[in-house]
Amino acid sequence: MIIKMIPVFGNEMGTVGKINVKVGDKIAAGDVVAQVETGKGNRSIKASSAGVVSKILCEEGAQIASNAEMFEINETAPTNEPSKPDNIDNIKAQKTSKEITTDLLIIGAGPGGYVAAIYAAKNGLKVTLVEKSELGGTCLNVGCIPTKALVKSSEIAHNVCSAADFGIQTDGNISVNMKQVIDRKDKVKDRLVSGIDFLMKKNGINVISGQASFVDEGTIAVTGNENYIIKPKDIIVATGSKISKIAIPGIDLPFVLNSTTALSCTDLPKSITIIGGGVIGMEFAFIYKNFGVQVHVIEFMNRLLTMVDSDISNEIQEIAKEENIDIHTSSKVVKIQGSVDGKAVITYEDKDGEHLLVSDKVLVAIGREPNLEGLSIENSGVLLNNKGRGIQVDTSMRTNIKHIYAIGDVTNIIQLAHVASHQAIVAVDNILNKHKEIDYSAVPNVIFTAPEIASVGIGEDQAKEKGMNIAVSKFPFAANGKALTMNEPRGFIKLVKSNETGKIIGGSIIGADASSLISILTLAIANGFTEKEITKTIFPHPTTSEVIYEAALGFGIGALHQ
Amino acid sequence: MKKIIISKEFDPYFNIAAENQLFLDSDEDIHLFLWQNDASVIIGRNQNIYAECNLKYLKEHDIKVVRRFSGGGAVYHDKGNVNFTFITKEKTANQAKFIEIIKAAMAKLGIDCEFSGRNDLLYKDQKFSGHAYYTDGDNYMYHGTMLVNEDFKQLEKALSPSMLKLQSKGIKSVRSRVVNLSSINSEITVEKVIQTFIETFDCKNIEYISKANFKAPLEQMLSSYDWLYAQSPKFDIELEKRYSFGNVSIYISVSDGMIQGIKINTDSLCLYDFKPCEDKLIGKRFDEQTVWKCIEQYIAAKDG
Q1: Are both B88 and B223 inside the same structural domain?
Q2: Are B12 and B69 contained in the same domain?
Q3: Which CATH number covers residue B190?
Q4: Phi, psi angle pair for A97, to nearest 5°
Q5: Which of A22, A129, B130, B221 counts the most CB atoms within 10 A of its CB?
Q6: Which residues lie closer than 8 Å to A229 by C-beta, 6 or more apart?
Q7: Spatial contact of A270 and A37, defined as CB atoms under 8 Å apart
Q8: Are B111 and B245 within one domain?
Q9: What pLDDT score was predicted for residue A10?
């Protein structure tokens, strides 16, 4: 028998506390074998059956993941393997750390950290990059890229299913080979990760694998296969984010997935309940729907995707309903239970009372929060932001400590990979004394639902809340020729203009190619264009980009094709 | 029915044992336990007692040390603290609600505070309340302390470990900037804080407990050597002492409170072979004084 670490929500790592047994100890079922702390909580790990401890697979003080194997229990024959006291020579060996000096130390190799590393190296700095897991961070390994690989597979599934509409006959039933889908995703990911590895070598960046933690404001200790003490001139903290915790009873049941575990789940459920109708939840909702899974979404707020305008939310909710995705907004999950035949039973509550949903699996997608784990940030003197979530920085990405900068999700400003990369450039420029400030007025944001959603700048709802004097122009994809040839007539584009300056200050698109079209709007907004700069530009026909031209005309004489 | 339990004792061993008994008897109602301790250091379940406090100073000043059941770091208590514990079942536990209650109580006292990611309540970035929780089976408790007018000079001295050269497994404390509520507003007293907690929890059902009317079976265990010392996670320690013949440095690895490995070195020109000392000490209960006594006796015997 193996005693495992109890699952902790969000795959948050625990720390092994006191281990109460030794190899060879006889234990009874229910005996406490170890303590594990997560956050400031302490839990007892108990033996599930009687036996003799044959192996201890964890160590006091070590970090431990959910379901990690902790003890091997021999239920029959006792073994006489003696427990080995720590050898004194080992103790001394553990104490030696290599000291290294560097101009810039970057902690975390995600799209913030690795971009900062390359840019700094290209500008002549000696750069050390510490990563405790994989190069590429959340984005490449368990975020943007792998989900997009699944989106592509699901699009193809959708296309094949609707092939007949385009005059293509398929023979027999189609099926999804989920193992192959996941394998393909892993290949894409591996190729990108090795690409970053190449870029690190090419730019002479010293990459260290290990956990970095502050000793004081000028010293970082790295523990890994080899230990280091680093005293850099400047530091960039780019440790990203982790999956948020939520205390729903039943969250640890085996059929409950989070975005990370869902990305490696090779069995396709017949039905799934997604808790959270935000970006992660809705992308997965359409992925699973296109794979032929019955999808339920439970959202606490009164609409889906609260970061976009409410008319966009309504449009995607209608499309989702037409596609038979079962949506429950203004609903709170009360608990998750398992039925006798192994199904998930989800109890949720709305204004009409409690309801039950039954599905094969549950995906919890409630968002991410800054990751400060193991960093001992308190030793650095760096201040956290008001809510104690995330590192506080100014517009030059500098913390309250002069030589320490923070970028990306750990700052809890905007959780987007491309914002982290941009902040990286600003931070490095300031380290190089170039005095740059970050500007968030034109940050594009893309959601890969079907159809895609994208937005940039100030939204209509937000502008109205602020009491800004604005004009809005909308144009539907139904009036765009290319969209019709693609069989994607749903959606619209919306531009927001400031009546005071005449400039376009925001734009939202839900519809075909939204993820590509948003770059054009971003360019327009970042450069302070009015509708005139757009209307005097020739847009190619027949493309979906014509919707931008038409919407710009909408501010004046009106769209031509409407 | 929900209730408030107030301890009339200031003995930390009783209070923490009583808290544990209430925890074991928990039900789906939420109960609030309010308690205060005499001067004491309360360390987390998985902490190393040697790494967290100055044992010599504690002994001299009659400050007790208690290992609690919840996780987290070491705190100092005296009568200038008010401690609270929310006790319920895991499925009815709602950390956000507990924090709301505390915040509401603070608001009544005119204190506007923030909850930090480290489970602390902060007033202008200074901590006045630290929290931790513990679950076992389906029982759950969420507890914490409020600094009202604590003696910070004692806190500083009590929580400065004397054995600096120590590498321990387990959970290390994190130093925080602290503030007393009474220094934010001099009208706030421990009595007022307790009264405000009672009002905010909105419960008329109040029960007072003391050693006379409440059985807390774990009280003995909590003050035992095994619980306090041997439950420290594994650690390695380096001791050093200067003698007339030279410096002696000792590396010891301690597990379950027992010496598992020991190496004694000296820079002395006399060639002492400390092997017999090492053999004698291995497997013994770790205690700094015993170690030095053993070495001194050995030297005396050799030289004598």
Answers
A1: yes
A2: yes
A3: 3.30.930.10
A4: -125, 140
A5: A129
A6: A97, A98, A99, A100, A215, A219, A220, A221, A222
A7: no
A8: no
A9: 53
Cβ count near A138 (within 10 Å)? 28
Q: CA-to-CA distance for A278 and A267, rounded, in angstroms?
A: 24
Same domain, B136 and B99: yes
Half-sphere exposure of A170 (CA within 13 A, CB side): 14
B167 with B225, same domain: the answer is yes
How far is A94 from chain B, CA to nearest CA, in Å?
10
For B72-88, the pLDDT digits (tens) are: 888 999 999 999 999 99
Kindly list the distances between the CA atom of residue A473 and the CA atoms of A305, A493, A504, in Å, as whole numbers in the listed order.
21, 8, 11
Q: How many domains does the structure of chain B reveal?
A: 2
Q: Determine the distance in angstroms separating the CA of B212 from the nearest CA of chain A, rounded to an integer.
A: 30
Which of A296, A435, A541, A561 is catalytic? The answer is: A541
B24 to chain A, minimum CA–CA distance in Å?
Answer: 14
Which amino acid type is present at position A154?
S
**Which token pair is A451?**
């159809």
Answer yes or no: are the C-beta atoms of A499 and A469 closer than 8 Å. yes
Distance separating alpha carbons of residues A193 and A141, to the nearest angstrom: 8
Name the 3-class secondary structure at B283.
coil
Are residues B214 and B248 part of one domain? no
Which CATH topology does A2-74 take?
OB fold (Dihydrolipoamide Acetyltransferase, E2P) (2.40.50)
pLDDT, tens digit, for every residue of A454-488? 999 999 999 999 999 999 999 999 999 999 999 99
Query: Which structural domain range is residue B259 located in?
Result: 235-303
Nearest to A39 among B94, B119, B253 (CB): B119
Q: How buried is B287 (Cβ within 10 angstroms: 0-12 exposed, 13-18 middle, 19+ buried)? A: middle
Percent of chain A with pLDDT over 90: 76
Residues B272, B142 share a domain = no
Strands B235-243 and B246-255: antiparallel
Amino acid at A88: I
Q: What percent of chain A has pLDDT over 70?
A: 95
**Would you say how long chain B is, in residues?**
304
Domain boundary among B193, B211, B230: B230
> Does the annotation mark A328 as catalytic?
no
* A42–B contact, CB cutoff 8 A: yes
Q: Which of A517, A504, A548 is nearest to A446 (CA)?
A: A517
CA pair distance A159, A170, nearest whole angstrom: 11
Which fold, A445-553? Answer: Enolase-like; domain 1 (3.30.390)
Question: Which chain B residues in 212-231 lie under 8 Å from chain A, judged by CB atoms?
Answer: 231
Give CA–CA dist B50/B54, Å, rounded.
7
Which chain B residue's Cα is nearest to A16? B170
Residue type (1 letter), B2: K
- Find out if CATH 3.50.50.60 is the number for domain A98-243+370-431: yes
A256-366 — its CATH code?
A: 3.50.50.60
A256-366 matches A445-553 in fold: no
Q: A388, B115: Cβ pair inside 8 Å?
A: yes
HEC profile of B221-247: HHCCHHHHHHCCCCEEEEEEEEECCEE
Alpha helices in A446-545 (DSSP H): 460-465, 481-485, 514-526, 531-535
Q: What is the pLDDT of residues B176-218, one digit of tens each?
A: 788 999 999 999 999 999 999 999 998 889 999 999 999 888 8
Judgement on whether residues B21 and B66 belong to the same structural domain of the protein: yes
Q: Which among B45, B118, B234 is the nearest to A60, CB-wise?
A: B234
CB interface of A with B, residues 307-346, below 8 Å: 335
Contact A452, A515 (CB under 8 A): yes
Q: How far apart, in whole angstroms, are the C-alpha atoms of residue A517 and residue A554?
A: 18
Cβ contact B169–A61 (<8 Å):
yes
